[in-house]
Each structure stands twice: as structure tokens, then as C-alpha cells.
Amino acid sequence: MPTNFTVVPVEAHADGGGDETAERTEAPGTPEGPEPERPSPGDGNPRENSPFLNNVEVEQESFFEGKNMALFEEEMDSNPMVSSLLNKLANYTNLSQGVVEHEEDEESRRREAKAPRMGTFIGVYLPCLQNILGVILFLRLTWIVGVAGVLESFLIVAMCCTCVSLPRPGVAVPSAGGSYYMISRSLGPEFGGAVGLCFYLGTTFAGAMYILGTIEIFLTYISPGAAIFQVEAAGGEAAAMLHNMRVYGTCTLVLMALVVFVGVKYVNKLALVFLACVVLSILAIYAGVIKSAFDPPDIPVCLLGNRTLSRRSFDACVKAYGIHNNSATSALWGLFCNGSQPSAACDEYFIQNNVTEIQGIPGAASGVFLENLWSTYAHAGAFVEKKGVPSVPVAEESRASALPYVLTDIAASFTLLVGIYFPSVTGIMAGSNRSGDLKDAQKSIPTGTILAIVTTAVDLSCIVLFGACIEGVVLRDKFGEALQGNLVIGMLAWPSPWVIVIGSFFSTCGAGLQSLTGAPRLLQAIARDGIIPFLQVFGHGKANGEPTWALLLTVLICETGILIASLDSVAPILSMFFLMCYLFVNLACAVQTLLRTPNWRPRFKFYHWTLSFLGMSLCLALMFICSWYYALSAMLIAGCIYKYIEYRGAEKEWGDGIRGLSLNAARYALLRVEHGPPHTKNWRPQVLVMLNLDAEQAVKHPRLLSFTSQLKAGKGLTIVGSVLEGTYLDKHMEAQRAEENIRSLMSTEKTKGFCQLVVSSSLRDGMSHLIQSAGLGGLKHNTVLMAWPASWKQEDNPFSWKNFVDTVRDTTAAHQALLVAKNVDSFPQNQERFGGGHVDVWWIVHDGGMLMLLPFLLRQHKVGRKCDRIFTDCPVTTNSIVWRTVSPVENDISAFTYERTLMMEQRSQMLKQMQLSKNEQEREAQLIHDRNTASHTAAAARTQAPPTPDKVQMTWTREKLIAEKYRNRDTSLSGFKDLFSMKPDQSNVRRMHTAVKLNGVVLNKSQDAQLVLLNMPGPPKNRQGDENYMEFLEVLTEGLNRVLLVRGGGREVITIYS
Predict the structure, then answer these.
(1) What whole-number distance in Å separates Cα of residue 220 and Cα of residue 243?
(2) 0.85 surpassed by pTM
(3) Disordered: where is this region (predicted)?
(4) Which domains are present in the chain?
(5) CA triple 507-430-465, angle to 5 deg
(6) Which residues contact 651 (CB under 8 A, 6 or more apart)?
(7) Distance between CA 348 and CA 352 in Å, rounded?
(8) What is the pLDDT of residues 651-669, one digit of tens each?
């Protein structure tokens, strides 16, 4: 896919139209001066005023005619021409704020454009170089090699460099904010803000680390006498050093902050000086290595037995001098004995072991490389000992810390060394943090970063050279005490150790300035995006764009690192923040590649997503290798920031790579689900909620959604559907408003699901379409939840029951379960609680187990959790549910039943009569009168007839109905049979009898129930009895407060194999 293209404007001259236009433009008589204002394309003029529809507007006609754009006139009312769009894109600046903010601050952006812009060398490579070849190389790399050995040190450096360099060649961040810009635009503002702040904190603590390294070089190797706090007692050197680091570090931080405040151009000018010092130092190291191979320097190291001695307090490595056949004790004798006399009491180890001298830097040809190949880890306070030297062990001395031994200050381990060294390679991204100050970030960042990655070869080569040239005990001497307090790496350099000391001092100073320059700009970019409200004040600065307030906050946070005052303690902290950032940079690259995002086009042609995935895995592993509790703390901080931005942050139009990943995962899951229906043990109601809307597109029964939340408890699929009657072209605005109202109600009721609104020519068709097509693939509903049509008897809405009955038939045909909530407005809201009571389940016919499953699901919600007793119409007892047996209804058919049936059929006939002609209406009225007279006669005969000995079944099937017709043929009942066959209809009387008697039993047992669940009988096959069906259901549930009619979907929903 080509990434570069050129747009060439084309002048269209159709039939000489362009020439005619030019002639009209240059016609004589045209008044000079400014042209009258003409509407620009996309200015929002009404379409009725366009020249394509109305030729009265001469100016618009001439405007479009000259451009031959009349065919696209209506689109140009809302969409700009391509030439205008490209003109805007040409003037676009890659700033971190949005388009609106950029237009509002256009004048300030022009002033900011006048600020000096940097190229690849000064803007990217130099900051990277000063961070890579900085404090860790000069102060800690020799100690890491001595403790971990050459092999493990090489592994540490290789892992750290690989971790941060894998995705870099393909990444160019053309905006202020560097890695934050990339992560926020790739993974969304939540991830971007969280990781951006972690990266900011890491960069800030890096500044503290470099400042501490500067002070350590100054107080330890340049001017030890400048210490303010002096050692007052034995063993107090460490405490005094920490206090001196805090005082000098604070002063240095203030001085560097003033330099950064003056302007970044002064930092860049100083950077050239610092860079020269770094280059000279590196050259001096290589020169010293070459010289040591031919002429090793004379740097003796004193050993007592196999223990290394600190030469800060003595010069001669002897116990006593021999002068004219007389012996005189040395200064070393006085350190280990109570006095200078030969007879003084001395340390036992001092007496038993001899004093020897070895060369601290034997040279590259000495063969010491094999001795330094393996690790030598030790606990805190251990002696620095040389392997292979004879030593007489003695009991542990009580005053070993007061003796001039070289001791380890901290317990070293592989994980600790990884955490200490990792900040050295974080400089690879130092250039991207200042991408807003670059002339061409697209070109400078990849080029400078690749050069910086190549520069890390210096560290790898130094590991091998240090192991080949320097004695192991000297390498493990962190502060050069065995070398009379000199810098170890400086003693190797040629021509003088001061080249390294001065070079490392200025290198750490420069790295600190670079950190104090990059961190405020990163914070300013986050603040200007507005994703974290309380940080917006730090987006302001000076007129030239310098982040003044962000610099102030950076100095305060950096001061907390200065107060820690230990380089080895600060390094693992910033390692966690950097590793967190690099982890998400690799994740962003991998996600964008896997999603094949069109705007993701890495320029490194050998880039593959597996590189980013490997880097991400390595970052995560290194986080826990360095320190598992620091790693968890960093993740907790990032998680808190993520949730805060998600809760309070501003909405941005950057897109979200995680959302794209979710869509891909959803697509994959849907394809897997499509293969077959779920097993019974995994079945749960996937509900389609049918809502009714009023004239204002507001939901009529909002508590239906409350019941849905209680039934689902956030699990499974919920689709909230509704139907608007009309055509979509006329009703699209109402549909949008209705959808907004439904979504708002879903949010209020905490119903997690999807909203699907259909505009159809009739409510009946719309509901049928929803039942058939709601959902996607295998993620479809299996249950329909709707409210009982309470107004089905009203005269102004005589046919509302038709939609209801047809919906029942649709769900049955689709093999979907149906839940009908009657008196739904009295159902509890999510905030209410049932203080007790019970849920009564009337299980009349087997429905696949729906009536057993629903009460269990309802009791999982806090609303019905205290309803611990369930009654049912089934002669079974279990441990968890109380079942109650209810006797069948009586077999006598009362006059009330006939009266209700008669009233039902009278109403049905009256409704039919409304559709007849006048003559037909008169015949129907006479027929209704005759039926009424016959019903009274039947009632009188019913009171005199003996009771029928057989039972009347509560639940009727086809087989039972046929058997009942041919069962009673006794001559004594012939009169009653003739009467029963009269109107009202025999089957209707039986159904009404069942409804009346079962309603009486339910009222007797479940009057005080919190909720009644009842089998819902199916609609009649003959559509002529639909209204009677509604009457049966009305009688069945009459007098009950909350009723849920349940109709199974034709499949088992519970199993014994769960």
C-alpha cells in the first residue's frame, strides 16, 4: 500500500465553460474593489436556496458554475471540497490538543513556531547518548561486572537493551509528549494517561538519580573535603554521606531548574560541552584498555589473607618495617592492634594471616578474564575476598566494621542488578520525549533512536573489557576504597583518571538537565489533552511554550528522590515506571499490527508484531525480576489513574485500539458460538425486553428494566427493544430521541445490555422483526420479556390484545421462552429490598424447568435475597425448596363461571359487530339477546341438576378434550348435556372454570406472596378465540399483586449433570 501521494489540482473546462467563465470574470464594467461575499462550500445554506434547485440565486449559480460542482451541490452544503480539506491539512500542526483548541490558540501557536527547532543529532541522538553513557556506566557498571560476572552482566545488559529497543525502529512520534502521544492515540486516553503519568514519574525520578550520581562523584572522587556532615563515630560514614547527598542534591536541583527555566536552547548549548566530555571519557577508557595489554598500570591492592583492605588510612601494605635490624610497626598495625607497640593486643585474623599485594589492574593479557567470568554474590556487610588466596579462618570479629576492610554495602542479587542497570538504557527514548521541539520528528526519531541502540554496544564491550583488565576484588569495590578512594574505571583510563572523573561528572549533569527538560514537556502534553482534569493547570507556561508550572511540579517530585539520597534505591523505582511504559509501547505496536489499522504504517520494513510481543513479555518479566513489590505498586498506581480517567476524564476522539481488539475478539467468539446451541448446564435467559413508548418517546414501564436487572444480575445477554410506528425517513429523529431515552433509563437502572429500536409500518410487524432478528449470530436472545397490556379492554384501544397474542404465537414459533409481567409498575426497584416473604411458583405443566430456574436467579439479586421459601403445585420435597401439594379444583361449574363466560362472549360479539353492516348488526343483536335468554334458563337448570361425579381437568389437551366429549353418555344427564352444548361455548366454559378455580386456589395460598410465578397457557389455534384467551388470562391472575406468567421455549433449561 503506498504511503506517499501527490494531489494535483485539475482545471475542468467542459465545452469551453472555463473560458466563458474567465471572460465573464474579466468583462468590462465590473467595478473594482473587494468582491461581494459568496457562500463557501459547506456553509450550511438550506438546500432550497441552492442554484441547482432554484435559479433565482445568481451569485450561488455563478459560484458553482465556474467550478463545475453543481452535481455535488447538496453534498457541499455539509462536506467541504477536497481542495479546502487539503489546504487545512497543509496548515495542520501536530500538537497534542484537538482541532478546536488549536484554532482558538492559533496566535499563540504561531509564536510558538518561532521557537528553535532541533535536528536529529542535537534533538534525538544527544539526549539518548547522555542517558546511555551516563551515571550507571561510570559509577556502577564495574561493580555489576564484579558481582554478577561477565556472563550474567552481559545477559543483564542484553536483556535491558532488547526490552527497550524491539519496537523502536518502527515508531516515530510526531508530537509533543513522545511515547505518551503514541500510547494515548493507539490504546485510548485511559491507557495513555495512566502510562503517560508513569513515564513522567520515571523521567522525573531519573533526574533525581542523575543528580545523586553527580553529587556522589563530587563528594567521593573530586572533593571529599567539601562534605558538610563529617563522620563522628565508627560506622557513621554511610549516614553522613546520605545527609551530604541530600543537601548538595537539593542545591544542584535548584540550579538545574533555573537553567531549564531560562530556556531549552541553553540546555542544548551546554549539552555540546557535556557530549564532548562523554566522548573523551569513552575514548580514554578504550585507550587505557589498549595500554594495559602492553604496559599495565602499577596499582597495588592490599590483601590481609584473602580479604581486601581499604587504603584510605594507610599507605604501606606491611605489618612492620625492618630498620637496621630493628622492627617498627606500620600504620596498618595500629589499625588492627590496640597500640603501635609490637606487644600490643591485635586482631586474631590479623595475627593469623599475612599481608600481600596484588595488581588491581593486571591488564588484558593477564588472564583475569576467566576469574571474572562467574558471579560472586554476597550479603550486606560481607568481606570482599579474592578466590584462590590462602586464608586462616578465625571466629567472627565483633569489631569488623571498625577495621579497614572493604565490605559490601548492600545484599546483591541478579534481580537487584537488573533494576540498578535498567535506567542506563532508558535513554533510548529520551529523544522522543522532545519530539515537539524537532524539525522533522518523522525522520529524526527513527534515525536518532537507531543510532542510540547501536551506541549501547559500548556498554556490552565495556563489560568484556572490564572483566579482562581489572581484578575481581577491585571490580566488587563499589567506591574504590582499595584504590585509596579513586574511581575504579578512572584508574583504567589513559592518560589520567581525571579524564573519567570530570567526564562522568559533566555527563551526569547533562543527563539530569535532559530529564528536567523532557519531564515537564511530557506533563504539559498530558495536561493540554485535558484527560485528567486536575492537571490542566500544568498545561500553561510562558509565551514561548516553556512549561513553567509543569517544571515546578517536576522539581518538587524530583526532590523526593533526592531525599532518598541513595542511587541504588532510586534506580529500581524509576525502572518500574519505565518498564511499565515500554510494556504498553510494545503492546500498542502489537495491537495496531494485529488489527491491521490503516493509520499504522511502521517505516522499519523488517518490523513484525512478534518483536513487540516479545518485548512486552520481556518488560513484564523484568518488572517482577527487579522487584515484585515495586512492580505491583507501579501497576496499582497505573490502575488507579486508569480508573480515574475512565470515571472523570474527558471524552476524546482519538480512537481506541483496545476497542478494536475487543471487536476482533467478539467476532472470533461469535463465530465459535455459532457452531451449536449451548448445553443445558450453560443455559440462562438471554432476554429481549419489549418496551412500550408514549407519545414523547419515554418508556411507559421503567420497572420492567429493574426486573430485568434483578433477573440477569449483569450476566448473559440483554437486548432492550422497542418499536415506533411509521417510516424511518419520517421518524428517524423520534427514533434517535427514543433510543437516547432508553439508554438513559438503562444506565439509571444499571441494565447492562444493548438497545435496538425498530421503525416499522405497524407495531405488529416491528415486534415480529425484533423477535426474529434481534442479536447477532449465536449471540441471540432465547427469552422475551414484556409487560401485560393492561389497557386491552379499553374502548379507545379495542384491538391492542391482537399484538400481544400474535407476539405469544411468534415466540412459540421461534422456540423462545416468554415472560409476561402483570402489574409491572408494582414490581420492586433495584434500590428496594424484600424484607422477607416468599416467591410462589405454580408449576402446572412441565415447561423445561423455567419455573424452577427463574426463582433461583431472582434470589441471587439483593432485592429478593431474603425470600427464602418457595411454594409450588407439585407433590415433591427437596432440601433447598419447600414444595406444597394443592388438591385439584372442584368439579362443579358454578353460575359465576357461566356468567363470566357469557359476559366474555357478549363482549366478543359486540366487538365483531362494530365491523358489520347495519342489517348484520341487527341480526347479531337479536342473536346475542337469544343467547342471553338461554343462559338464564341454563343457570336455573344448573341449580337443580345433581353434581357430576367426574373431575374437570385443570389443564386441557387435545386428547383430554376428546375423551371428555365421549365420557358422559348417561341418559340421566342428557338434559344437562343439551344445556351444556348451548351457548356459551362448551370449551370456553371449561377453560373459564379452570381459570376461576385455579385463581381461587392461588389467591388462597399466595395472597401475601412477594411474587407469583405461574404457567402461562398457550393461545388457541383458532384465531377467533384470541379475545377469549385474553379474558382467561385476566381471570387466572385476577386479584394478585405481582404476577409473572411463564411460557417455556420448548427445550430443557435444567439438568441433573450440573
Answers:
(1) 14
(2) no
(3) 1-52
(4) 99-295+408-626 (1.20.1740.10), 300-407 (no CATH), 679-830 (3.40.50.620), 833-932+986-1043 (no CATH)
(5) 50
(6) none
(7) 6
(8) 666 666 667 777 777 888 8
